[in-house]
Design a protein that fits this description.
alpha/beta, 19 helices, four-stranded parallel sheet, coiled coil, EC 4.2.1.-, metal-binding, about 55% helix, iron-sulfur, binds Double cubane cluster, about 425 residues, iron-sulfur cluster binding
Length: about 425
């Protein structure tokens, strides 16, 4: 890898601490990913993106900023990428999935909080994430209480614009979300000094839809028996989708899917158990559960999570004559995302049932990041409906540490034997 120390130093990175992070990632990646057998050739691009996670992409962001461009960070799939693209800014997903950042996060946040929030906070306050350091503004949202309050602290480090996400889906709530999107457009225009026009917004919608379509194509391929790609590889691709250049990502993902089309024709089913994961998101580099499941010779074939189907299901309608028309289209699509921060959230249960059939799922694992109350409470509904359908289910509640990996492995092993 090229030497990016000068760039990191310019971004205000704590180089000594950052070196420690750079030392653990290749080992973790090598152990989890490069030991997989018979990976598609098309994964080479995604290997490169991970190898250069704090290098090439950061250089691209820096070059863009040098020409006057702006970079904004996001933390939730409700924040419309289309608006960021239309304002000619670059958006990067900043949810953090490493235990490395948790310690610094706990210096400013309570320990009994979701690891995703502690890690994203730690990445910023410890000055060890070049993506955070590249951002001119962060976009928060009022989803769960932990994140909502974390923005107040983050705002001391970098400007944060918070979008008020409704927690119900009545007509008046959808209208309110339209207003939030309009305010977000103004905010982005102010930041970038670029006017969002009907054409630029339509183009943003087309770009985001192309990404959704490519991910959907990948997921559709997993419906075959056997799935032509591991769950681990798909998880990685989904995680990369949040920060890679969207056009390049779509091109590379479609190339990979062309290769997978060929694999499907030659696939021989070995009868591996097919697992759905539902629940909380898995931010990079959280590969813990997938790695345990697939290490036990089962296969993850679908994730009903925000690093899975919730990110790409439903396209935004590209038709419309005015900004208001397009904003309405955006609101319509985004309000179809079924996150547990909504009440009621019956759409998520419908999705789970639908995916069980579509992906020929043998068993479901409800993945709950510790202290994420909304998803933990919703487990009862998931359990009820899967019991009715006679689909085996277990709940795994965990964080980013590896301390409980042995225990989780034992539970997953018993689950796989039972189904
Ligand atoms: S749309 S799931 S990305 S809010 S941070 S809620 S895990 S306690 S991430 Fe999320 Fe948007 Fe919903 Fe998806 Fe729980 Fe942790 Fe909160 Fe979390």
């Amino acid at each position: 890898m090229a030497d990016y120390r000068e760039l990191w130093s310019k971004l205000g990175i704590d180089l000594e601490k950052h070196d420690k992070l750079c030392a653990v990632l290749p080992e973790l990646y090598g152990g989890v990913y490069l030991t997989q057998k018979n990976r598609p050739e098309g994964m080479n691009y995604f290997n490169l993106v991970v190898a250069e996670v704090h290098g090439l992409r950061i250089q691209e962001l820096d070059d863009y900023k040098a020409q006057g461009g702006k970079v904004v960070g996001t933390f939730c799939v409700f924040v419309p990428d289309e608006v960021i693209l239309a304002a000619k800014a670059i958006g990067v997903g900043l949810c953090s999935g490493s235990q490395f950042w948790v310690e610094d996060g706990e210096k400013v946040l309570p320990r009994n909080l979701c690891p995703l929030i502690k890690a994203l906070m730690g990445a910023k306050v410890g000055g060890t994430c070049p993506y955070f350091q590249s951002c001119d503004m962060l976009i928060g949202e009022t989803t769960c209480d932990g994140k909502k309050k974390a923005w107040e602290i983050l705002n001391d480090y970098v400007p944060v614009h918070v979008m008020e996400l409704p927690q119900m889906k009545r007509e008046k709530n959808c209208k309110a979300w339209e207003e939030e999107i309009k305010e977000f457009i103004s905010k982005m225009e102010e930041l970038t000094e670029n006017k969002v026009t009907v054409e630029s917004l339509r183009q943003g919608i087309k770009t985001a839809n192309a990404k959704r379509r490519a991910l959907k194509r990948l997921y559709n391929l997993r419906k075959y028996k056997p799935s032509p790609i591991s769950g681990l590889d798909v998880l990685l691709i989904s995680q990369i989708a949040f920060y890679d250049d969207p056009d390049r990502f779509v091109e590379k993902l479609n190339e990979l899917c062309d290769e997978l089309d060929e694999r499907v024709k030659k696939g021989v089913d070995e009868g591996k158990k097919r697992i759905m994961i539902t629940g909380t998101p898995m931010a990079l580099p959280n590969w813990k559960l997938h790695s345990i499941i697939e290490g036990l010779n089962a296969q993850v074939v679908v994730e009903e999570t925000c690093t899975g189907t919730r990110y790409f299901e439903n396209e935004v309608c590209e038709e419309g004559e005015t900004i208001d028309d397009l904003v309405k289209n955006l609101a319509d699509r985004y309000m179809k995302i079924n996150c547990a921060c909504f009440t009621p959230n019956t759409g998520r249960i419908d999705d789970i049932i639908k995916y069980v059939d579509e992906y020929h799922v043998d068993g479901v694992i409800d993945f709950n990041l510790s202290f994420c109350h909304t998803y933990a409470v919703e487990h009862k509904d998931v359990e009820k409906v899967l019991k009715e359908k006679d689909i085996p289910l277990i709940q795994i509640e965990t964080d980013y540490s590896t301390e409980d990996s042995g225990q989780i492995k034992t539970r997953v092993e018993a689950f796989l034997e039972m189904i």
